[in-house]
Amino acid sequence: MALKLYQFAISHFCEKARWALDFKGLNYQSIMLLPGQHVGTMKKLGADKSSVPVLVHDGQGIQGSARILDYLDETFPERPLTPSDPTAREKAIDWERRMDEELGPAVRCYAYHYFLQRPKLVTPLLTAGTPFYNRFLVRLAFSRVDEIMRKWMKINDKTADAARQTMERYLTELTQAYEASPWLAGDSFSRADLTAAAFFAPLFQPPQYPVPWPDAKRIPEPVRNWLDEWKPQLQKIEAIYTANR
């Protein structure tokens, strides 16, 4: 049975799953969903939560990027993302777990806090890959969309500032790790490197991402200033992305 990936185009957690599928050279059907409207689809799939990504294969639904990577390595062992060495495997999974819990939500909170203040800028990102009329629907109901997203992800001035600090902490830690070794765990590219680069990817806007990135001049000024300040560290992460994506 064909692989199907239910996802948001803009989600970096979904990019993590997309990248894993592509890295293994697997053919899959990509099903782009609209945030909010996706809840009904998740219920039909019998998912435990409303979150994406969800991978469907042989009648089985696998929800969450980490579980998807587990499933892919177990079912399609070629080009493994999980190190075979026990010590390296534990290190890779620990990196991934921490970034799933802290870095991924931080990047999302920080970016949305500023981009949601620009409806014309963020609407094409939220609706990418879905029917064209969704842009009009989101624009018409944007005040409600903004309210729901901020409440759901607990986005405000205070949490955005905390998210920025988390991002900076991880950029510093990752930079130090890559100065000591070309990989975060073991002697080859792993799920730890993939997770780090996928989560920071929206900040360096790679062409592999299936969204219409805004022109750099249109990026909200606080974000643009932060990107300039942390450009050297981000370039190290971008290099990992470019070389392996």
Quick summary:
The protein is α+β, with helices and mostly antiparallel strands. It has helices at residues 12-23, 38-45, 65-75, 86-115, 119-127, 133-140, 142-152, 157-180, 191-204, 221-229, 231-244; strands at 3-7, 28-32, 54-57, 60-63. Helices cover 61% and strands 7% of the residues.
Q: With helices defined by DSSP (H or I, 4 residues minimum), what is the helix count?
A: 11
Provide the CATH top-level class of the largest domain.
Mainly Alpha
| Count of individual domains | 2
Q: Helical amount among residues, as a percent range?
A: 55-70%
Indicate the CATH topology of the largest domain.
Answer: Glutathione S-transferase Yfyf (Class Pi), Chain A, domain 2
Low-pLDDT segments, ≥5 res: none
What is the end-to-end distance?
Answer: 25 Å
Strand order across the largest sheet: 2-1-3-4
Which key phrases capture this entry?
single chain; 245 residues; alpha+beta; Glutaredoxin; four-stranded mixed sheet; 4 strands
Question: What features would you describe in this structure?
Answer:
With 245 residues, this protein is of the alpha+beta class. It folds into 2 domains: 3-75, 3-Layer(aba) Sandwich (Glutaredoxin), CATH 3.40.30.10; 86-244, Glutathione S-transferase Yfyf (Class Pi), Chain A, domain 2 (Up-down Bundle). It has helices at residues 12-23, 38-45, 65-75, 86-115, 119-127, 133-140, 142-152, 157-180, 191-204, 221-229, 231-244, and strands spanning 3-7, 28-32, 54-57, 60-63. α1 packs across α9 and α4 packs parallel to α9 (191-204). The longest helix is centred in the middle third of the chain and has 30 residues, at 86-115. It is globular and about 50 Å long. The model has no long low-confidence stretch (mean pLDDT 96).
